[in-house]
Design a protein that fits this description.
5-stranded parallel sheet; about 45% helix; alpha/beta; 7-stranded beta/alpha barrel; 5-stranded mixed sheet
Length: about 450
C-alpha cells in the first residue's frame, strides 16, 4: 500500500532593528520587538492556529489514520512563548493525539552543520530538550535547516544517534531514480534518507493559487487521484513544505485551508496511508544508497546553498560570524550566548541573496530589508558590536588580553575610588554638621575663691 509522509517546517526569526554604524559600541540591543511580535501574531492568526485546528479535526474524524510531522525551530518556539503561547497549546493538543511526530533540527535554524560538528550536536541537543519539555517527545528523525544535506552531514547525524534524515529529492542527485522510495546514507547505511517529492510539494506551496497554472484550480480529490495513479512500485510520497503555505503564503481566500481540511479524507478514500517519518523508516526497506557529495537543499531552482552562500556578501558575513566560534565556546555570559544563537539564524544570510530572476520573489517573504546590501550592512554592524562585547569576556589575542585585564583593573580601581570618595563625602558632611550645630551645654561658672583672712 502506498503511503504519504506529510511534513511541515515552522520557523520565524528574531528580526533586527535598523542598527546604525554609530550604534556600535553604544547600544547592544539589536532586535525589532514590534516587527517580531506583529509578524508572529499575524501569521499565527492566518496560519498556525486555524491550520492546527483543521489538522486536529481531521485526526479526530479519521480516527488516527491521518498522521503528520512538524519541525519547529527553537527560535520560533521562543517567540511563541513570548508573543503567542496559545500556538504552543494548540501544538500540545496535536501531540496528545499520538498522530503527530516532532522532528529534530538545529535550535537556531542555522547553517552550523557546514562549520562544526560539535556545535551542531550542541544546538540539536538544546532543541530536542525543548521539544521534549513542551510535548513529551524525544525526536528520533532529523531535519536539517532548509533540508540541507550531504553524505558527510548525514554521517554526522548518524553519529548523533538519529535513525533517519529528511532532504530534497534533487533531480541532479537522483538522476533517473525516483524520490518515492526510502534510501540510505552513502557513508553509513544505517541512516535512512527520505527524499522530498518536489513537484507535488511545490504544486501546493507555490502553484496552488496561480490561475495560469494548467492544473488550476487544484482540488483535494484531484491531488489524491494523482498519487493513486502513480507507479504501483513507488512506496512513499514525501510532501514537505513550509507550514506558512496554509493561510500565509497562500491566503485563505485561495481555498488552501479548505484543501487541507479535505485532503485526509480524499487520500484515505483512495486506500492510501499516512505515515510519520519514523513509521516510514520502520515500515519500508531502503532500495539503495543515495550519493550526495556536495550539499543540497530545497531552496530555489538550483537546490544548493546559493540562497545563503551564493555571493561575496553572504560568504564574508558567514565566515566572519564563525570566526568567533572558538571564543564564544569559552564564554559563559548568558546574553552573549543568546545573541550568538540569534546571529546564526539562516534568514540573515537569506536576506543578502542577490538573485533577482526566477527565484527573486521567494526571497521577499518576511524580508525586512529593501535590498541585499542593506541586509548585509545591518548584519555586519550588529556583528561588529557583538565582537566588541565578546572581547570583554574572551579577548582575541594576547595584546587584547592584556588590555582587557588592564581595563578590568582600572575599572575595579575606579569603582574603589568612587566608593572611597562617597564615604569621604559622608564623613565630611557629618563633621560639618556637627561643627555647625550650636552647643546645648551651659557654660561653667568659675567661682573665685574667697580671700583668706589674715
Amino acid at each position: 500500500m502506498k503511503t504519504i509522509c506529510l511534513y511541515f517546517q515552522l520557523h520565524q526569526p528574531f528580526r533586527y532593528r535598523r542598527y546604525r554604524f554609530f550604534d556600535i559600541g553604544n547600544d547592544s540591543y539589536y532586535y525589532d520587538d514590534y516587527a517580531n511580535e506583529t509578524i508572529l501574531q499575524k501569521v499565527a492568526q492566518n496560519c498556525y492556529l486555524p491550520a492546527n485546528k483543521l489538522l486536529l479535526d481531521a485526526i479526530e474524524k479519521q480516527k488516527g489514520k491521518f498522521k503528520i510531522a512538524f519541525s519547529l525551530s527553537g527560535i520560533a518556539l521562543e517567540q511563541f512563548q513570548l508573543y503567542a503561547p496559545e500556538v504552543i497549546e494548540s501544538f500540545k493538543k496535536l501531540s496528545d493525539t499520538g498522530c503527530v511526530e516532532f522532528l529534530s533540527e538545529t535550535f537556531s535554524h542555522s547553517l552550523v552543520a557546514l562549520k562544526s560538528q560539535s556545535q551542531l550536536a550542541e544546538q540539536v541537543k538544546k532543541h530536542d530538550d525543548l521539544i521534549e519539555s513542551l510535548f513529551g517527545q524525544r525526536p528520533s528523525v532529523f531535519r536539517n535547516t532548509e533540508l540541507i544535506y550531504s553524505d558527510e552531514i548525514g554521517n554526522m547525524v548518524n553519529d548523533m544517534g538519529f535513525k533517519a534524515i529528511l532532504t530534497e529529492g534533487a533531480k541532479h542527485v537522483l538522476g533517473w531514480k525516483s524520490p518515492n522510495f526510502l534510501y540510505t546514507n552513502a557513508i553509513n547505511p544505517r541512516l535512512k534518507v527520505l527524499m522530498r517529492n518536489y513537484k507535488l510539494s511545490d504544486d501546493l506551496a507555490f502553484r496552488f493559487s496561480n490561475p495560469d497554472w494548467s492544473e488550476y484550480p487544484l482540488t483535494a480529490e484531484k491531488f489524491a487521484n494523482w498519487i493513486k495513479q502513480m507507479d504501483e512500485k513507488e512506496e512513499v510520497v514525501n510532501l514537505f513544505m513550509d507550514y506558512e503555505t496554509f493561510g500565509e503564503h497562500q491566503k485563505k481566500e485561495t481555498g488552501i485551508l479548505d484543501f487541507l481540511a479535505a485532503l485526509p479524507a480524499e487520500v484515505i478514500k483512495q486506500n492510501i496511508e499516512f505515515n510519520t517519518p519514523s513509521e516510514v523508516v520502520k515500515k519500508l526497506q531502503p532500495v539503495s544508497a543515495v550519493h550526495v557529495p556536495n550539499p543540497i537543499s530545497w531552496a530555489d531552482e538550483e537546490r544548493d546553498l546559493s540562497a545563503w552562500l551564493g555571493n561575496e556578501l553572504q560568504e564574508e558575513a558567514f565566515n566572519k560570524l564563525y570566526s568567533l566560534l572558538h571564543r564564544v565556546e569559552k564564554c559563559d555570559d548568558a546574553e552573549i550566548i543568546k545573541d550568538w544563537e540569534y546571529l546564526q539564524v539562516s534568514d540573515h544570510f537569506y536576506y543578502m541573496c542577490t538573485k533577482f530572476f526566477s527565484d527573486g520573489e521567494v526571497h521577499k517573504y518576511f524580508n525586512p530589508y529593501d535590498s541585499p546590501y542593506e541586509a548585509y550592512i545591518n548584519y555586519m554592524n550588529v556583528l561588529s558590536d557583538f565582537a566588541l562585547r565578546l572581547d570583554e569576556f574572551v579577548p582575541e589575542n594576547e595584546v587584547k588580553q592584556q588590555l582587557s585585564e588592564l581595563q578590568k583593573t582600572i575599572s575595579e580601581k575606579n569603582a574603589k575610588i568612587k566608593n572611597l570618595e562617597t564615604e569621604n563625602k559622608k564623613l565630611l558632611s557629618k563633621v560639618k554638621n556637627t561643627m555647625s550645630k550650636p552647643s546645648t551645654k551651659k557654660p561653667k561658672v568659675v567661682k573665685k575663691a574667697a580671700p583668706k583672712k589674715k
